Amino acid sequence: MIKENYPRAHGHLQKAQQTKAAMASLWGTLLDEDLVEESVVTHPDGSGMISAWLAWPAGRQEELTELFRGCVQELWACLDALVEESVEAFSALQRVRRPEHSRFFPVADSPEGFQALLAESCMDGTLRSHVAMVQDCQPFQSNGSNEIIDRLRTSLSYLVGWELALASGALMGAWATPVEPQVHAAAPAVLQRVEAEPPGDLDEERALARYQLSSFQHGCAVEAQAGTYIDLCFAEEFTPTDIEDTFDRRLTQVVEAVTRFAVSFAWLSSKVPGSRRVLPPSGLSERDTWVEATRSSRCWSPEELAALASSDIGLGRVEDADRLTLMVSTARGVYERVVPNATPLRGHERRGLAAEVAVQDAAATWGLPDFVMVPSVERKGRGVREISDGLLVVGDRGVVVQIKAREGEPGTREKESSWVLKQLAAASKQIHGTVRRLKMHSVQMTNGRGRSVHIDSPAVDWVGVTIIEHPAPPSDVPVTPQPGVTPVIALLRRDWEFLFDQLRSTHAVVAYLHRIGGSAPVLGDEPERYYELAAADAAAAPGPVDPAWTRRGGQPYSVPLLPAAPAGSDDNEAHTMVRIMLEDLAISLIGPDEWEPWQAVLASLDSLPVGYRTNLGRFLLDALSTVTTAEAGTTAWRMRTFIAGPKQDQLGFAICSALTDHTRAAFSAWLQLRHHERGEDADLSSLTSMGVLLTPRMDGYREWDTTVQVISGNPELSEADLRVYQNLWNANHGGVGSGSEA
């Protein structure tokens, strides 16, 4: 469970356990090599002492100390990773606030200190149950009747003490615990008594026992056994409570405590329904996936770049072991688009289940989890059957997903190609069966945010996607179209993630899959097909502009449906702002009876073409900054409206300096007026306009309040209302089309 939910924490815990074992092994070797030396001294009056000291070989004490330091660091890293990975995982369900603050596992010596750490956002984004558990296990809490919690508190105090002592330069040593010292003396000497000394560290020569002989004479032979346990120890602030209380036992207790924290974090996380953020790939950041070819580490020559730019399709391909690199010719020059291998799988027992989770996580990470429907089962006769490996549903379009994962070790290329082709045929049959079932009657499913939503599946237009999960997919596998009414597209899991990472919109990915309606000729060629279509979009002439739009002052803004650059690469802050707005809307305080209509609202907003999102995000950021500084006693407004086509939903976005009954009414009037104006050239009965109002807050609770209003059909404004609304919003208005402000 730990590895599945917290792979980094699991890795740190494993390293801590391995380092602890290495310490024990080195300590055993040192003892075998006579690390401990002893002496027996008898004085003329018959009194004597057994003592011992450590004869450290050069560098071995420092080596032991570094191993211990590494163990402590890995234990802390495990605890911190539990917090960090929790924040990352649940960011697919709720956006991270104050992301500039570091996340870590807080440990304090007082309630005030703990609250101060929480105020630094150290656990913001984790579950409330995580925070409550960590708080309950703080060392400052009074020990009670729960032995397990008391051990956790004690273990954290040990860990804090060790870290401080190591930082001050303390070294590993040994702890001597005298138990049964024995003395044997030759006649005429007689042993009167032998007494063990208190336990202590062997930092210097230490007395282990003292004895007294009677009738002792010079030359009498005296032999002694120390009868002492010599244990590895970090003696700084170490005071054992009994003979069983050793450093090794304490270290074992701390490792067990950290393990228990990891298990508890994982168990609490597993109780939260919904998707998680996809695990990040190693060694590649987002900014490395789209770079100008002239700045590439591959050092392309000017001649190579010129030849690519002048080629028919302006597209080149270089495939390495860990990534696919496409050379893309754009109007701004040649760019490298790096398509990394699929993200790491979580630690499930079966590769198929891990792949299923990864596919859902990718769609929830780069799209919205609200549109990801997790697999569900329904009763059929005396048994049950699963409704595919998951669905994507956005508005009236859907995708049936079937995942085929290669278990075990791959064989020859011929064997693996045969396996892929068999799986594609089997998955296609399953998809057709699922679509037939979905067309019969509606279903109730749980989406990636853990909400149960009703899907009117007979009214949805479906395509199928078969996703191949293979540790080393064979190359050049031809994909033959499968018979059936429903189009089925075959993708590698890498290509599924490429589409979501490229477009960052579930609506856009689903629209793309419906647009292509079939597989690329060769499995794994989807990124190349995407860029061929993107080049065609870029070269296409803009469609006709709605005359009502230009009459209202709207400005045409033509962008390709499929951008060459990954979404947000031109202005990540602006693009992220749009995602933040969508996330805030998705997690608004709504009840279960509102989840289904809310799906429609989110689908409409997610329909905004990817090419417009940077424009919108920058507008929102600038407008929020502007209205925040409005003069006292005034109300500042900034507005922008987008419409992607005559039959598409009209999307209006407004930012106002204050949220009052008056500004709510004014916002409603603005949206009704803009919707009414569409009716001058179109039938409003089938049209929808949607407005989103953001109003900044200054209380620190959140950055802004969000208000949403939807209008469908004819608002039937009276002549009086229309004049009032026009005087309010059109009197000094220079246009509210895309690219314009009011």
Structure description:
This protein is α+β, with helices and mostly antiparallel strands. The chain is 39% helix and 21% strand. It has 19 helices and 26 strands. The strands form eight sheets. A five-stranded mixed sheet has the order 14-17-18-21-22. It has a four-stranded antiparallel sheet with strand order 1-2-7-5, with no helix packed on it. Helix 6 crosses helix 7 (247-270), helix 9 packs parallel to helix 11 and helix 15 (572-586) packs across helix 17 (610-628). The longest helix has 31 residues, at 60-90. It is elongated and about 125 Å long. The two termini are 53 Å apart. The relative contact order is 0.07. Residues 733-742 have low confidence and may be disordered.
Keywords, separated by commas or semicolons:
5-stranded mixed beta sheet, 742 residues, 39% helix, 4-stranded antiparallel beta sheet, disordered C terminus, alpha+beta, elongated
Summarize the structure.
Strand 24 (650-656), helix 18 (661-678) and strand 25 form a beta-alpha-beta unit. By secondary structure, the chain is α+β, with helices and mostly antiparallel strands.
